[in-house]
Automatic annotation (TrEMBL):
Residues of the HTH tetR-type domain: 1-61
DNA-binding interval(s): 24-43
Name of the protein: TetR family transcriptional regulator
Alphabetized UniProt keyword annotations: DNA-binding
GO MF annotations, alphabetized: DNA binding
Length: 188
């Protein structure tokens, strides 16, 4: 019998490779080689599954990274930011997953609410790191938006940027911002 986690991971894989319309009980059971009874045992129906899947996406693609970076809360903010960049860029998740969820959010109010919450969480974390670095709330807001815009924009470029190219782009942005503000860029 597959665990709830197995069902959710299968859903993320289907979502990334085939999109939200492919998220059906039949496709999920076929991927896992299981019966519908197992699916209903864990989720009660497709509505419960969708809610759990969105929560799983949020936990795996946002909260997990923040938790990992915050294991060392005493690290300087730019060190934590560099760690966050490395974790996100080197993550094993299919980059198409973020695109699929955003496309789904355009068509489904529940998904849109979750996407807004995820974006707000990510932006707030970036903002908090930059604020701890510079002490200027307005600058922290702008820098959070810039870094997040790089993240979302990089997903849209075809062909996809390599991990090293993306890391270099983040580091350049941070270096330019720290020079502009007169801060010490050697903390990264």
């Amino acid at each position: 019998m597959a665990s709830k986690h197995d069902w959710l991971n299968a859903g993320l894989e289907i979502l990334a490779t085939e999109g939200a319309p492919a998220l059906t009980i039949e496709r999920l059971t076929g991927r896992l080689g299981l019966s519908k009874g197992s699916f209903y045992h864990h989720f009660g129906g497709m509505g419960g599954y969708r809610t759990a899947l969105l929560g799983h996406f949020e936990a795996e693609c946002t909260l997990r990274f923040i938790d990992e970076v915050e294991r060392d809360p005493a690290a300087p903010p730019l060190v934590r930011l560099d760690r966050l960049v490395a974790l996100v860029v080197d993550a094993e998740e299919d980059p198409r997953l973020e695109i699929a969820v955003r496309a789904w959010a355009l068509q489904d109010p529940e998904v849109r609410d979750v996407q807004e919450r995820i974006d707000a969480t990510r932006m707030a974390y970036l903002r908090s790191l930059w604020l701890a670095h510079c002490g200027d709330a307005e600058e922290a807001d702008r820098m959070a938006r810039l870094l997040y815009a790089i993240t979302i924009g990089a997903e849209q470029i075809v062909p996809v940027m390599s991990a090293e190219e993306l890391k270099d782009l983040y580091r350049l942005s941070i270096r330019l911002a720290t020079r502009q503000g007169g801060a010490d860029a050697d903390q990264t």
